[in-house]
């Protein structure tokens, strides 16, 4: 499939079948994330893949235990992935002159997008979640206190069809040469 077909097929699903996700497919998703661009090639990420049903249930409970009370669907995902922000190391000539984590969130987002796009190509579905109980997840997954869980990603086989995208018109999201209202 072309990249535009892949981008169109990728969607955030909140319902999954009970079918297991093959570890080979998860490794392909991780390889795609590994190839994401990052500032000074710092690759400030670590992906913790949860595919043990008991740990997935515990993590899903921590995800649902958030101040907004959302993401309860995580309990239906056969796999959950914690994307952890690692320290970013920049080139020596610029290290210390700028905040080394200045681009880390962009890098993490790119790696997460690569992971999700690869999943879509494999017929898997994902949903990126930003609301969760980070303290509970850090304790469960033994993430050091000086690290941050950037996002959680639910992964599984979709239980529904590809939906029509609801996006802004193309002319509403771009301009050439200068900002236009």
Question: What would you say about this model in short?
Answer:
Helices cover 31% and strands 15% of the residues.
Account of the protein in words:
- This protein has about 180 residues and is an alpha+beta fold.
- The chain has one domain (about 5-170): 3-Layer(aba) Sandwich (NADH Oxidase).
- It is about 30% helix and about 15% strand.
- The protein has helices at about 5-10, 25-35, 55-65, 105-120, 135-140, and strands at about 45-50, 80-85, 125-130, 150-155.
- α2 (about 25-35) packs antiparallel against α4 and α3 (about 55-65) runs antiparallel to α5.
- The radius of gyration is 18 Å and the shape is globular.
- The mean pLDDT is about 90.
- Please describe the biggest sheet, giving its number of strands, its sense, and whether it closes into a barrel: 4 strands, antiparallel
Query: What percent of residues are in strands?
Result: 5-15%
In which order are the strands of the major sheet placed? 1-2-4-3
> Can you tell me the CATH topology?
NADH Oxidase
Low-pLDDT residue spans: none
Q: How many helices? A: 5
Q: Determine the fraction of residues in helical runs and give it as a percent range.
A: 25-40%
The chain-level structural class is: alpha+beta
CATH class designation:
Alpha Beta
H/E topology pattern? HHEHEHEHE
